[in-house]
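TA notes, week 10

Several of you asked for a full example with nothing omitted. So below is the full record: structure tokens for the whole chain, then the designed sequence directly under it. When grading your own attempts, check the secondary structure regions first.
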């Protein structure tokens, strides 16, 4: 039997593959399972067009068999198999995808789920194996073939026996080295986790013989308090859940289903406050399940926190945390997106063109926004809970990027209202403004209690105008960026000109100003450079004196800026 060489380009490509294309070695299993699933899909499509064939769902599955003694891991499928020629073409020429060709030939078929397209996934096996054997028998053929390769220097193909149609991929797992561990790929528990992580939603069962232990029956004469003995037993289990929740019909799902999914996925330890199930069918097709958590994750307002959604392509996990899918101001959102429309590159970990991804991200942003808006209207308590946890992030969102996102966010932020004694939105404030009121008034301070005692609020409150209390250090910066809401500008109660119509008090103050000019000058001198001016006030009622500001910055902002490191 002569050994055939991989084509020259293929040889170099194979070395590259093994050493650098994939970031995680464990994905070899995802690739082999995806191929197995594709092979079963192909049989399925054949049965749709060939009346002599029938498809019994229970006959189709993938089986994973680790064997620590022989140090092999076998991935078997009952799929379409390969002829000698197909073996040669599909596994002898790297970057040639039989699955892509199949998809093209069968384009008329609806509901394509075939994953393969690059013709390199198979070789990921060499990241963990120093020898790979493929035993395969094609549908409609009595002869089976064995393909064998020890990596870059070539492969052999010879006839062999196999009773049933399908393919076994046998990996001889590498020995551990000082730097690299391979034993884990023979470990049931670890394999199960890898399957769960990447291939949970493959549509066919992925089975494995799992060894567990259970308490043995107590012997008749055993002492009452004797510890039970444990016996080991092995049973075949299906590891994957097969049908992803996001492909199910919304009407079939309960809140509990979504909560369970949230917990299973470990998106958070709390219960989600709200879920969003999106099945988009427009310019870009995708499914998504998104969650708004109730509580702030402990690391949320730190640099360690990483935003992102899980990204699936056709049910196969591509990325754990795709940050590009969420704007920073919605970084609290958890969940996943599945789309067939993504152009993946050969490593699948990198997206080739991000046009579709951008479309999805934009779409998702709008959905989250309108979800939050409808919560303000219909589920006020929930929204306030949410706002306690993440309102600060929204306000940062208004301020960041030079206010680029303020239009998206200004209807989502709330401040405490002097009138309502609770959080209100800007829209609510403006809707209550008397006709003659020119500005949206606000007062900044450390707490509601302290703001209430500010002499500066007196005149505005006296007029019967509502005041927004800004107690968070980001608040005033956000307000400045918004600058006006529905054409009403914001005005701090401590600014020099409040824009309130003058009344009798004004004249009195004017007279006072003239009469006491000498006293004021003397006071200013005593205070040195600490104040710019001392004047008779038009706004005080029960307090003798207050501080006001004239420039762009309010007193509170000046305080914050002074605290910042230069
Ligand atoms: P891709 O899946 O992107 O096409 P792979 O390198 O993973 O590339 O596989 C190359 C080709 O080998 C597949 O397109 C398919 O034709 C064939 N193949 C791989 N594994 C199997 C299998 N288990 N059963 C049948 N054909 C397979
Ligand atoms: Mg593949």
């Amino acid at each position: 039997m002569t050994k055939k060489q991989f084509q020259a380009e293929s040889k170099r490509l194979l070395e590259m593959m093994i050493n650098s294309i994939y970031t995680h070695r464990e994905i070899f299993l995802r690739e082999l399972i995806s191929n197995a699933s594709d092979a079963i899909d192909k049989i399925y499509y054949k049965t749709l067009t060939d009346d002599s064939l029938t498809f019994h769902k229970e006959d189709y599955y993938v089986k994973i068999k680790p064997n620590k003694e022989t140090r092999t891991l076998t991935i078997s499928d009952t799929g379409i198999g390969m002829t000698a020629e197909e073996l040669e073409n599909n596994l002898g020429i790297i970057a040639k995808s039989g699955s892509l060709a199949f998809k093209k030939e069968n384009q008329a078929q609806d509901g394509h789920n075939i994953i393969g397209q690059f013709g390199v996934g198979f070789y990921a096996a060499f990241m963990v194996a120093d020898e790979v054997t493929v035993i395969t028998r094609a549908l409609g053929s009595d002869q089976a073939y064995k393909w064998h390769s020890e990596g870059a220097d070539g492969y052999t193909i010879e006839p062999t026996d196999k009773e049933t149609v399908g393919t076994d991929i046998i990996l001889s797992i590498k020995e551990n080295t000082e730097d690299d561990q391979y034993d884990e790929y023979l470990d049931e528990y670890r394999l199960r986790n890898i399957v769960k992580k990447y291939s949970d939603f493959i549509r066919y069962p992925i089975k494995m013989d799992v060894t567990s232990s259970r308490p043995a029956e107590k012997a008749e004469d055993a002492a009452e308090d004797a510890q039970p003995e444990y016996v080991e037993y092995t049973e075949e289990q299906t590891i994957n859940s097969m049908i992803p929740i996001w492909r199910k019909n919304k009407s079939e799902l309960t809140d509990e289903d979504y909560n369970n999914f949230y917990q299973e996925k470990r998106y958070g330890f709390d219960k989600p406050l709200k879920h969003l199930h999106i099945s988009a069918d427009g310019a870009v097709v995708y499914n998504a399940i998104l969650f708004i958590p109730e509580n702030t994750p402990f690391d949320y307002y730190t640099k360690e926190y990483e935003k992102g959604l899980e990204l699936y392509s056709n049910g196969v996990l591509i990325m754990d945390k795709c940050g590009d899918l969420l704007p920073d101001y919605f970084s609290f959102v958890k969940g996943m997106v599945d789309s067939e429309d993504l152009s993946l590159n050969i490593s699948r970990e990198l997206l080739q063109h991000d046009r579709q991804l951008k479309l999805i991200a934009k779409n998702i942003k709008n959905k989250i926004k309108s979800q939050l808006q409808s919560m303000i209207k219909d589920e006020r308590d929930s929204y306030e809970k949410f706002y306690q946890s993440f309102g600060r992030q929204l306000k940062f969102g208004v301020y960041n990027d030079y206010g680029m996102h303020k239009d998206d966010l200004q209807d989502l932020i709330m401040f405490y209202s002097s009138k309502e004694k609770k959080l209100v939105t800007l829209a609510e404030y403006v809707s209550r403004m008397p006709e003659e009121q020119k500005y949206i008034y606000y007062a900044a301070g450390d707490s509601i209690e302290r703001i209430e005692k500010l002499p500066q609020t007196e005149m505005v409150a006296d007029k019967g105008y509502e005041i927004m209390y800004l107690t968070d250090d980001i608040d005033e910066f956000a307000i400045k960026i918004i600058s006006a809401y529905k054409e009403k500008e914001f005005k701090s109660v401590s600014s020099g000109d409040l824009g309130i119509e003058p009344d009798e008090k004004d004249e009195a103050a004017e007279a006072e100003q003239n009469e006491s000019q000498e006293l004021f000058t003397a006071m200013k001198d005593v205070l040195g450079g600490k104040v710019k001016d001392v004047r008779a006030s038009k706004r005080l009622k029960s307090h003798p004196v207050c501080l006001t500001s004239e420039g762009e910055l309010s007193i509170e902002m000046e305080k914050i800026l002074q605290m910042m490191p230069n």
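Residues 355-378 form the longest helix (24 residues). Use that as a sanity check on your answer.
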